[in-house]
Protein backbone atom coordinates (compact mmCIF):
# COMPACT_ATOMS: atom_id res chain seq x y z
CA UNK A 1 0.00 0.00 0.00
CA UNK A 2 2.83 2.40 0.88
CA UNK A 3 4.56 1.68 -2.44
CA UNK A 4 1.32 2.25 -4.32
CA UNK A 5 0.70 5.58 -2.54
CA UNK A 6 4.26 6.70 -3.25
CA UNK A 7 3.76 5.82 -6.92
CA UNK A 8 0.57 7.85 -7.06
CA UNK A 9 2.31 10.78 -5.35
CA UNK A 10 5.19 10.63 -7.84
CA UNK A 11 2.73 10.59 -10.74
CA UNK A 12 0.84 13.59 -9.39
CA UNK A 13 4.07 15.48 -8.81
CA UNK A 14 5.23 14.78 -12.36
CA UNK A 15 1.85 15.84 -13.73
CA UNK A 16 1.96 19.08 -11.75
CA UNK A 17 5.43 19.78 -13.15
CA UNK A 18 4.21 19.37 -16.72
CA UNK A 19 1.13 21.50 -16.11
CA UNK A 20 3.23 24.26 -14.55
CA UNK A 21 4.81 25.01 -17.94
CA UNK A 22 2.37 27.84 -18.47
CA UNK A 23 4.24 30.34 -20.64
CA UNK A 24 5.72 30.79 -24.08
CA UNK A 25 8.54 28.39 -25.07
CA UNK A 26 12.07 29.27 -26.28
CA UNK A 27 12.80 31.26 -29.43
CA UNK A 28 12.14 29.30 -32.60
CA UNK A 29 9.51 27.04 -31.08
CA UNK A 30 5.82 27.20 -31.86
CA UNK A 31 4.11 29.71 -29.60
CA UNK A 32 7.27 31.60 -28.66
CA UNK A 33 6.91 35.37 -28.22
CA UNK A 34 10.61 36.04 -28.89
CA UNK A 35 11.27 38.90 -31.33
CA UNK A 36 14.44 38.92 -33.42
CA UNK A 37 16.67 41.99 -33.16
CA UNK A 38 16.36 42.66 -36.90
CA UNK A 39 12.55 42.58 -36.81
CA UNK A 40 10.77 45.42 -38.59
CA UNK A 41 8.56 45.73 -35.50
CA UNK A 42 11.26 47.86 -33.88
CA UNK A 43 10.98 51.52 -34.81
CA UNK A 44 13.57 52.81 -32.34
CA UNK A 45 16.05 51.79 -29.64
CA UNK A 46 17.24 53.16 -26.29
CA UNK A 47 19.47 56.23 -26.68
CA UNK A 48 20.58 56.86 -23.08
CA UNK A 49 21.70 54.68 -20.18
CA UNK A 50 22.84 54.79 -16.55
CA UNK A 51 24.50 51.71 -15.07
CA UNK A 52 24.97 50.74 -11.42
CA UNK A 53 27.00 47.52 -11.30
CA UNK A 54 26.52 44.80 -8.70
CA UNK A 55 28.92 42.30 -7.15
CA UNK A 56 30.14 39.33 -9.17
CA UNK A 57 29.02 37.22 -6.19
CA UNK A 58 26.72 38.89 -3.70
CA UNK A 59 27.24 35.93 -1.37
CA UNK A 60 30.97 36.75 -1.20
CA UNK A 61 31.67 40.48 -1.66
CA UNK A 62 35.42 39.86 -1.43
CA UNK A 63 35.46 37.65 -4.54
CA UNK A 64 37.24 39.23 -7.51
CA UNK A 65 37.58 38.64 -11.23
CA UNK A 66 39.58 40.80 -13.61
CA UNK A 67 40.69 42.84 -10.59
CA UNK A 68 37.26 43.84 -9.31
CA UNK A 69 34.54 42.57 -6.98
CA UNK A 70 31.97 44.14 -9.29
CA UNK A 71 30.82 43.09 -12.74
CA UNK A 72 32.97 44.86 -15.30
CA UNK A 73 32.27 43.20 -18.65
CA UNK A 74 31.23 45.52 -21.48
CA UNK A 75 30.63 49.25 -21.73
CA UNK A 76 27.44 51.09 -20.84
CA UNK A 77 27.16 52.15 -24.49
CA UNK A 78 26.62 48.49 -25.43
CA UNK A 79 23.05 48.87 -24.12
CA UNK A 80 22.35 51.70 -26.56
CA UNK A 81 21.04 51.17 -30.06
CA UNK A 82 20.30 47.95 -31.90
CA UNK A 83 21.03 44.71 -30.05
CA UNK A 84 24.19 43.14 -31.46
CA UNK A 85 25.06 40.48 -28.84
CA UNK A 86 27.64 42.89 -27.40
CA UNK A 87 26.30 43.56 -23.91
CA UNK A 88 27.10 45.20 -20.57
CA UNK A 89 26.98 43.01 -17.44
CA UNK A 90 25.05 44.32 -14.44
CA UNK A 91 26.32 41.91 -11.74
CA UNK A 92 24.24 40.58 -8.86
CA UNK A 93 21.31 42.99 -8.25
CA UNK A 94 22.91 45.55 -10.59
CA UNK A 95 20.68 48.07 -12.32
CA UNK A 96 20.40 49.95 -15.59
CA UNK A 97 18.09 52.85 -16.42
CA UNK A 98 17.49 53.45 -20.10
CA UNK A 99 15.98 56.49 -21.78
CA UNK A 100 14.65 57.07 -25.26
CA UNK A 101 14.59 59.72 -27.94
CA UNK A 102 10.79 59.52 -27.90
CA UNK A 103 8.75 58.07 -25.01
CA UNK A 104 7.40 54.55 -25.35
CA UNK A 105 3.63 54.45 -25.89
CA UNK A 106 1.03 51.91 -24.80
CA UNK A 107 -0.69 50.56 -27.89
CA UNK A 108 -2.10 47.24 -28.99
CA UNK A 109 0.06 44.25 -28.04
CA UNK A 110 3.70 44.39 -27.00
CA UNK A 111 5.27 47.85 -26.66
CA UNK A 112 9.00 47.12 -26.27
CA UNK A 113 11.43 44.23 -25.89
CA UNK A 114 14.54 43.68 -23.75
CA UNK A 115 17.58 41.82 -25.09
CA UNK A 116 20.12 39.70 -23.18
CA UNK A 117 23.11 37.94 -24.78
CA UNK A 118 22.60 34.33 -23.66
CA UNK A 119 24.53 31.79 -25.72
CA UNK A 120 21.67 29.25 -25.59
CA UNK A 121 17.92 28.97 -25.04
CA UNK A 122 18.39 27.35 -21.62
CA UNK A 123 21.18 29.36 -19.97
CA UNK A 124 18.95 32.23 -18.88
CA UNK A 125 20.04 35.10 -16.64
CA UNK A 126 16.94 37.02 -15.67
CA UNK A 127 16.03 40.58 -14.71
CA UNK A 128 13.05 42.55 -13.44
CA UNK A 129 11.66 45.27 -15.68
CA UNK A 130 10.20 48.53 -14.36
CA UNK A 131 8.86 51.57 -16.19
CA UNK A 132 8.49 55.26 -15.35
CA UNK A 133 6.98 58.32 -16.97
CA UNK A 134 8.88 60.81 -14.81
CA UNK A 135 12.23 59.17 -13.99
CA UNK A 136 11.33 59.13 -10.28
CA UNK A 137 8.45 56.71 -9.75
CA UNK A 138 8.96 53.21 -11.15
CA UNK A 139 6.45 50.41 -11.56
CA UNK A 140 7.34 46.75 -12.06
CA UNK A 141 5.89 44.25 -14.50
CA UNK A 142 4.24 41.42 -12.52
CA UNK A 143 6.73 38.60 -12.98
CA UNK A 144 6.24 34.89 -12.40
CA UNK A 145 8.76 32.04 -12.09
CA UNK A 146 7.58 28.44 -12.01
CA UNK A 147 11.14 27.09 -11.81
CA UNK A 148 11.55 24.86 -8.76
CA UNK A 149 13.29 26.54 -5.81
CA UNK A 150 14.37 23.47 -3.82
CA UNK A 151 17.64 22.86 -5.67
CA UNK A 152 19.94 25.67 -6.74
CA UNK A 153 20.42 26.13 -10.49
CA UNK A 154 24.21 26.10 -10.83
CA UNK A 155 26.38 28.79 -12.35
CA UNK A 156 26.08 27.15 -15.76
CA UNK A 157 22.73 25.48 -15.13
CA UNK A 158 19.65 25.43 -17.34
CA UNK A 159 16.19 26.98 -17.11
CA UNK A 160 13.09 26.27 -19.17
CA UNK A 161 11.73 29.47 -20.76
CA UNK A 162 8.19 28.11 -20.49
CA UNK A 163 8.44 28.52 -16.70
CA UNK A 164 9.15 32.26 -16.98
CA UNK A 165 6.86 35.26 -17.50
CA UNK A 166 7.52 39.02 -17.52
CA UNK A 167 11.22 38.65 -16.74
CA UNK A 168 13.84 39.95 -19.15
CA UNK A 169 16.37 37.34 -20.26
CA UNK A 170 13.74 34.71 -21.05
CA UNK A 171 15.22 34.25 -24.54
CA UNK A 172 18.66 33.64 -26.03
CA UNK A 173 20.86 36.32 -27.55
CA UNK A 174 19.46 38.46 -30.40
CA UNK A 175 15.89 37.51 -29.43
CA UNK A 176 14.07 40.05 -27.28
CA UNK A 177 11.64 39.38 -24.46
CA UNK A 178 8.58 41.55 -25.20
CA UNK A 179 6.57 43.54 -22.65
CA UNK A 180 3.03 44.89 -22.84
CA UNK A 181 2.40 48.03 -20.78
CA UNK A 182 -1.21 46.96 -20.23
CA UNK A 183 0.17 44.36 -17.80
CA UNK A 184 1.54 46.99 -15.41
CA UNK A 185 -0.97 47.97 -12.73
CA UNK A 186 -2.61 51.36 -13.26
CA UNK A 187 -1.32 54.13 -11.01
CA UNK A 188 -1.91 57.87 -10.94
CA UNK A 189 1.88 58.38 -10.95
CA UNK A 190 2.36 56.45 -14.18
CA UNK A 191 1.41 57.64 -17.66
CA UNK A 192 1.60 54.47 -19.72
CA UNK A 193 1.43 56.46 -22.94
CA UNK A 194 4.61 58.37 -22.13
CA UNK A 195 7.21 55.95 -20.75
CA UNK A 196 10.47 57.89 -20.58
CA UNK A 197 12.55 55.46 -18.49
CA UNK A 198 12.90 51.68 -18.33
CA UNK A 199 14.78 50.16 -15.39
CA UNK A 200 16.41 46.72 -15.62
CA UNK A 201 17.27 45.06 -12.29
CA UNK A 202 19.29 41.86 -12.19
CA UNK A 203 17.57 38.92 -10.53
CA UNK A 204 19.84 37.38 -7.90
CA UNK A 205 19.22 33.74 -8.72
CA UNK A 206 20.19 32.39 -5.31
CA UNK A 207 17.59 30.33 -3.45
CA UNK A 208 19.19 31.44 -0.18
CA UNK A 209 16.54 33.74 1.40
CA UNK A 210 19.32 36.12 2.47
CA UNK A 211 19.93 37.07 -1.16
CA UNK A 212 16.99 35.68 -3.12
CA UNK A 213 14.81 37.62 -5.54
CA UNK A 214 11.05 37.04 -5.51
CA UNK A 215 8.42 37.20 -8.23
CA UNK A 216 5.08 38.98 -7.92
CA UNK A 217 3.53 35.89 -6.32
CA UNK A 218 6.21 35.58 -3.65
CA UNK A 219 8.13 32.72 -5.27
CA UNK A 220 11.92 32.60 -5.14
CA UNK A 221 13.33 33.05 -8.65
CA UNK A 222 15.95 30.39 -9.28
CA UNK A 223 18.45 31.14 -12.05
CA UNK A 224 22.20 30.45 -12.59
CA UNK A 225 24.07 31.22 -9.34
CA UNK A 226 26.75 31.96 -8.47
CA UNK A 227 28.40 33.44 -11.55
CA UNK A 228 31.58 34.87 -9.95
CA UNK A 229 32.99 36.33 -13.15
CA UNK A 230 33.42 39.83 -14.51
CA UNK A 231 30.43 39.07 -16.76
CA UNK A 232 28.22 38.26 -13.75
CA UNK A 233 24.50 38.87 -13.70
CA UNK A 234 22.13 40.05 -16.40
CA UNK A 235 23.90 41.05 -19.63
CA UNK A 236 21.96 43.94 -21.15
CA UNK A 237 22.19 44.16 -24.95
CA UNK A 238 19.48 46.69 -25.73
CA UNK A 239 15.82 47.69 -25.61
CA UNK A 240 13.86 47.83 -28.85
CA UNK A 241 10.82 50.11 -29.06
CA UNK A 242 7.71 48.89 -30.85
CA UNK A 243 5.33 51.78 -30.02
CA UNK A 244 6.45 55.34 -29.29
CA UNK A 245 5.13 58.85 -28.89
CA UNK A 246 6.37 61.97 -30.59
CA UNK A 247 8.43 64.01 -28.15
CA UNK A 248 6.99 67.43 -27.34
CA UNK A 249 7.95 70.26 -25.02
CA UNK A 250 5.80 69.02 -22.14
CA UNK A 251 7.44 65.60 -22.26
CA UNK A 252 10.94 67.04 -22.43
CA UNK A 253 10.21 68.82 -19.15
CA UNK A 254 9.46 65.45 -17.53
CA UNK A 255 12.82 63.92 -18.42
CA UNK A 256 15.30 63.57 -15.61
CA UNK A 257 18.08 64.24 -18.12
CA UNK A 258 17.58 65.15 -21.77
CA UNK A 259 19.83 66.01 -24.69
CA UNK A 260 18.34 67.93 -27.62
CA UNK A 261 17.96 68.59 -30.49
CA UNK A 262 18.82 65.14 -31.78
CA UNK A 263 19.76 64.85 -34.62
CA UNK A 264 21.55 68.20 -34.64
CA UNK A 265 23.55 70.21 -37.14
CA UNK A 266 25.47 72.56 -34.88
CA UNK A 267 24.68 72.55 -31.16
CA UNK A 268 23.08 70.56 -28.36
CA UNK A 269 21.54 71.45 -25.04
CA UNK A 270 21.71 69.28 -21.91
CA UNK A 271 18.92 69.66 -19.40
CA UNK A 272 18.76 68.07 -15.94
CA UNK A 273 16.63 68.80 -12.89
CA UNK A 274 19.68 68.03 -10.75
CA UNK A 275 22.17 70.19 -12.65
CA UNK A 276 25.08 69.12 -14.83
CA UNK A 277 28.69 68.97 -13.65
CA UNK A 278 30.44 67.83 -16.82
CA UNK A 279 29.66 66.80 -20.38
CA UNK A 280 32.05 64.74 -22.51
CA UNK A 281 31.48 63.78 -26.14
CA UNK A 282 33.13 60.66 -27.56
CA UNK A 283 33.42 59.24 -31.04
CA UNK A 284 32.09 55.72 -31.53
CA UNK A 285 35.70 54.49 -31.32
CA UNK A 286 35.91 55.86 -27.77
CA UNK A 287 37.99 58.99 -28.49
CA UNK A 288 37.15 62.09 -26.42
CA UNK A 289 36.38 64.88 -28.93
CA UNK A 290 34.70 67.56 -26.76
CA UNK A 291 34.56 68.37 -23.05
CA UNK A 292 32.48 70.93 -21.16
CA UNK A 293 32.49 71.81 -17.44
CA UNK A 294 30.66 74.25 -15.13
CA UNK A 295 27.57 74.35 -17.32
CA UNK A 296 24.53 76.54 -16.96
CA UNK A 297 21.05 75.02 -17.26
CA UNK A 298 20.26 74.20 -20.91
CA UNK A 299 23.43 75.95 -22.08
CA UNK A 300 24.14 75.63 -25.84
CA UNK A 301 27.13 73.38 -26.54
CA UNK A 302 28.71 74.06 -29.91
CA UNK A 303 29.58 70.88 -31.82
CA UNK A 304 29.55 72.42 -35.30
CA UNK A 305 33.23 71.55 -35.80
CA UNK A 306 32.59 67.80 -35.46
CA UNK A 307 32.26 65.69 -38.62
CA UNK A 308 28.87 64.23 -39.44
CA UNK A 309 28.13 60.93 -37.71
CA UNK A 310 27.12 59.31 -34.42
CA UNK A 311 28.59 60.36 -31.06
CA UNK A 312 28.19 59.33 -27.42
CA UNK A 313 27.46 62.05 -24.89
CA UNK A 314 28.55 61.26 -21.32
CA UNK A 315 26.88 63.43 -18.68
CA UNK A 316 27.98 63.67 -15.05
CA UNK A 317 25.04 64.80 -12.94
CA UNK A 318 24.44 64.27 -9.22
CA UNK A 319 27.37 61.83 -9.08
CA UNK A 320 25.78 59.65 -11.76
CA UNK A 321 27.05 59.01 -15.26
CA UNK A 322 24.49 58.98 -18.07
CA UNK A 323 25.20 58.11 -21.68
CA UNK A 324 23.26 59.29 -24.71
CA UNK A 325 23.62 58.69 -28.42
CA UNK A 326 23.35 61.72 -30.72
CA UNK A 327 23.53 62.14 -34.47
CA UNK A 328 25.49 65.07 -35.98
CA UNK A 329 24.02 65.76 -39.42
Automatic annotation (TrEMBL):
Keyword ATP-binding: no
InterPro entries hit by this protein: Secre_tail
Limits of the Secretion system C-terminal sorting domain: 259-327
Signal peptide: 1-20
Family matches, as Pfam families: Por_Secre_tail (PF18962)
Keywords in alphabetical order: Signal
Protein name: T9SS type A sorting domain-containing protein
Organism field: Mesonia profundi
Amino acid sequence: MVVKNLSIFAFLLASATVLSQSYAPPAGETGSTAIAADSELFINWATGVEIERGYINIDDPTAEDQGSSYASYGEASNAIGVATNSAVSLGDAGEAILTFENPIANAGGYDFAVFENSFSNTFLELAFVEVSSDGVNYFRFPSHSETQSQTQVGGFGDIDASYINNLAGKYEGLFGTPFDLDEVADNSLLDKNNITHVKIIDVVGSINPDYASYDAQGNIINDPFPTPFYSSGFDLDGIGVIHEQELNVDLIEKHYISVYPNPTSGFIKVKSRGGVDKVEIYSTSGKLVKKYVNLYEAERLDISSLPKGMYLVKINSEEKNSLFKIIKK
